[in-house]
Specification:
Strand order of the largest sheet of chain A: 6-7-8-3-9-10
Shape of chain A: globular
Distance between the termini of chain A: 32 Å
Order of helices and strands of chain A: EEEHEEHEHHHHHEHEHEEHH
Strand order of the largest sheet of chain B: 1-2
Largest interface: A-B, 30 and 19 residues
Number of helices of chain B: 11
Oligomer: heterodimer
Low-confidence stretches of chain A: none
Strand content of chain A: 25-35%
Radius of gyration of chain B: 19 Å
Number of strands of chain A: 10
Largest sheet of chain A: 6 strands, mixed
């Protein structure tokens, strides 16, 4: 569904991604692990058209999207769910969700997606009139995921969904990602070392200093002592 | 005494409502792009010359109806393409807000000198939108004032409606509140920036048509208007639309009272003193967020 070849990305003078290649197949959950500041977010933002300076190839459904602007990419069915949520603070839950369905492709499905989202997150339905800026961290996280689902995307690029959440909320986020995946969405999630999320992975990658240093299944990772220690916390 | 005060309040409301129209346009651009538009006042003058050309030079049929019907699309196109051609390329560079400030400063000089080259340095007068006066009890109102007030309030209501009920309006608010979030949901930021610039050009241009009837079309009016719009926006809170509305009405009132009791010369001093005192105690302005 998504295949990246030799992707290089830059922030100003900094060369952040170095010849990154990876693939995500339809229906998979792929987890990208790696330390903070080694390029995981940049990878997701590059896929979503939010990094200007990049070269290589990003093929989505057999189309090279590397030069596409972000609004076109959202319309193709890829959505980015940001680590720090990036909600609209002075708008209600409902307005945030409706803006999530801004793209042409999403507008047609706004009603059914809203129902789906509210059944997935009953808490948000209760708080549909509340301003995003007054929500707790966990609720805001849920709203960010829900807003991403409103875009009617097939492919979700999720940036550290469990960061800063207490353990029971991490489990909740993992459950929701699993649920969304079962509903047919393909998911690429980047994380540091959250076992509940790593557990969901059909395939694991490790990104260090802008290079992919590991690619394989969970079992492969478990047999790699180095990885076991650093990323799986075992 | 009582009648005097009512007269002053009405004159304050009148100016305040047009100021609100203009200052809110500026607050909108700043709120969305975080860039200063220093050419803002020159579009006020452009509105005045546009009306003068149609009404006096061409003598067009339909008078002010035709002027407003053509001015809105004209100002939209001018604003939209100026943004697309001049400002949009700057946005790919770092620190583009500073570069945009310099560019709009240059643009305002270019436009103001252009007006003198085309229309000459003399003031032009616009015909009144309606003639006559109306008496209500002990008060006599100029019909012109009433119409100007109604038109600027209508303009404000249209603006509020567009902002809260249309897709482009919600997109504008989204970009103002969180540009990154707007990009995530797939809002084309470039188009929103251009549309915002265009809408603000309409608002200040219409303000120019309304107020130039009372103050003449003056090629040197741009700077004064720009400063006034900036003072109101800073007083109300940079980028806050509600703040600009209240600030415009307060400053309109202050001008009317100071002008009547102390003389026109003292207006600028009074307005700037109010701004300085406000910013000393509330650096974010009346309703600013930071």
């Amino acid at each position: 569904m998504l295949s990246i070849e030799n992707l290089n990305a830059y922030y100003g003078q900094a060369h952040v991604l170095k010849d990154v290649s990876m693939t995500v197949n339809k229906g998979e959950v792929v987890v990208m692990l790696g330390p903070n500041g080694h390029g995981k977010s940049t990878l997701l933002k590059s896929i979503c058209g939010m990094v200007d300076s990049k070269r290589g190839k990003i093929a989505y459904k057999d189309q090279d999207i590397i030069k596409f602007p972000s609004d076109k990419i959202v319309n193709l069915g890829i959505t980015y769910i940001a680590e720090n949520r990036e909600l609209f603070p002075y708008m209600s839950t409902l307005e945030n969700l409706k803006l999530g369905a801004y793209s042409k492709n999403a507008r047609k499905h706004e009603k059914e997606n809203l129902e789906k989202v509210f059944s997935l997150f009953p808490r948000l339905a209760e708080r549909r009139k509340q301003y995003a800026s007054t929500m707790s961290g966990g609720e805001a996280k849920m709203l960010a995921i829900a807003r991403g689902l409103m875009s009617n995307a097939d492919f979700l690029a999720i940036d550290e969904p469990a960061l800063g959440l207490q353990p029971n909320l991490r489990t909740e986020v993992a459950r929701i990602i699993n649920e969304i995946n079962k509903q047919g969405k393909t998911i690429l999630v980047v994380e540091q070392n959250i076992p509940q999320i790593t557990d969901l992975a059909d395939k694991l990658y490790v990104l260090e200093e802008g290079h992919i240093t590991f690619e394989g299944s969970k079992d492969d990772a478990l047999s790699n002592d180095n990885l076991k220690e650093i990323f799986l916390g075992m | 005494m009582f009648i005097e005060i009512i007269d002053i309040i009405i004159s304050g409301l009148l100016n305040g409502s047009v100021y609100a129209l203009m200052a809110i346009g500026l607050a909108l651009v700043y709120g969305v792009t975080k860039a200063f538009n220093f050419a803002y006042g020159s579009f006020y003058t452009m509105g005045g010359y546009f009306a003068w050309t149609l009404l006096v030079s061409v003598g067009i049929k339909g008078g002010y109806y035709t002027v407003f019907l053509t001015a809105i699309p004209f100002l939209f196109v001018v604003g939209f393409f100026l943004e697309k051609i001049l400002i949009s390329p700057l946005r790919k560079r770092s620190d583009w807000q500073m570069k945009a400030m310099m560019l709009t400063l240059g643009l305002s000089l270019f436009l103001d000198i252009g007006y003198i080259a085309i229309f000459g340095p003399r003031l032009k007068s616009l015909p009144d939108i309606v003639e006559g006066t109306i008496d209500i009890g002990p008060f006599a109102f100029m019909n012109q004032d009433i119409v100007i007030f109604i038109l600027s309030i209508t303009g404000l209501l249209c603006f509020a409606w567009v902002l809260n009920n249309t897709r482009i309006g919600m997109a504008v608010q989204a970009v103002a509140q969180n540009p990154m979030g707007a990009q995530i949901v797939g809002i084309p930021k470039d188009r929103v920036f251009a549309a915002t610039f265009a809408i603000s050009t309409i608002m200040v241009g219409i303000g120019g048509i309304l107020l130039s009837q009372k103050n003449f079309v003056n090629p040197q009016a741009s700077t004064g208007i720009m400063i006034k719009a900036w003072v109101i926006t800073a007083f109300g809170g940079m980028g806050s639309i509600k703040g600009s509305l209240y600030a415009a009405l307060i400053i309109g009132m202050l001008e009317a009272f100071v002008g009547y009791y102390l003389g026109m010369i003292h207006i600028e001093v009074a307005v700037l003193t109010l701004l300085l005192i406000t910013l000393a105690f509330r650096p974010q302005g009346l309703m600013g967020k930071e």
